[in-house]
Please model this.
Amino acid sequence: MDSQQLFKERFNAHIKHVMRYAQYILNGHIAIALIFLVVAIAVVYQQFLIELPEAFPVSLVMSILLSLVILYNPIQTFTKQADLVFLLPALESLKGFFYRGLVYSFFFQSYLMILILAALSPLYHARFTSGNYLFIIFLFLIFKLWHFIMSWASLRLRNQTLLLYTRMGLFIFQTFVWYSYLKSWTIMFILGVIGLFIILSYLLHLAFAQSLALDQLITNDQHRLERFYRLASLFTDVRELSTRVKKRRLLSRMLTSRVLLKQSETYTYLYRLTFSRSEDYLGLSSRLVVIGVIALTTINQPLLSFGVGILFIYLIGLQLLPLFSHHDTKLWLLLYPVNRQEKTHAFLQLLTALLSSVVLLFAITLIFRLTALDGLLFLVLAGVFSYGFVRVYAKSKMNNRRRYS
Model:
């Protein structure tokens, strides 16, 4: 079997498949929002560096961030479920196929490595005036390569408890090595590097004594693809996405207890239950709310705070839009004796309530962070924006779905 040709076919198919959804993710609205967010973060970061407190633990923060990026090593092998049957007998002849996948996976992470190294450079030079940042980059690449090889080898191990404790131990040890270097503890740094090398060598020996676990490679690739599908589902329908559901009895009961048991409330009950149980909506929106609150607490400029707050409200509303058509592929919904207007009304009602809650939370945050007047002004501006988003933008999106469904 020609491993090079197989990799080329799988790679081209993967890129074509990803680009089909990427064009929806990077449309005009999202591109503008991302540019605004990057500018806002850059302004806040620059202001933070100017006012950098003497007590701020630069060494510890840099050590943790560098260690997190070093230990984050997603590996794409382009394997499929059918390979368990058709490729399993030919694993020995597919070393070139997996090698090319590893090279792709390592260089695919270069954007994250460049981003973190570029972001930490001003912080490093703001505190350390005599250090050599190029040597940190060199050490970073060496450590990254070590841990990347370890991540590939760990896919052979099936003991998940061992892997969990291994990752925790490696993170603590790697953070200590970075902290020792930044604090100029030369002896501790050298001992830490030697110890880290011994631990990684032992783990590599333990892992490579096992045979290649093709089923784990396939599961790993499927999980990565599912995460990409969840991102793409915020902007378009993704037929390949398999939704994870959690019962969340308490939250579900809170959202549905006051829904009346009558025909016109059918979709009200369904949408509230779906929102509370589906990780795609509750999980993502909750994370965006938390990030938005953290961002607003770090900004002390009213206009910038207003822009960032409205941007997060837009992103939260955008990721909730697919909820409207979440159940459209289920044929049994056609049995519901409910007209389309009631479905639309139920969704818009839920979307309005959720965005209003976010607006109120952000306004309270700004009242405590800035002034009461700034918080009230944001409440008015964000309320008008949310109303327009629901009644104009969201409604037009739903009308377009109805036209093409």
User: Anything to note?
Assistant: The mean pLDDT is 79. Residues 372-404 form the longest helix (33 residues). The chain has two domains: 3-231, 246-404.
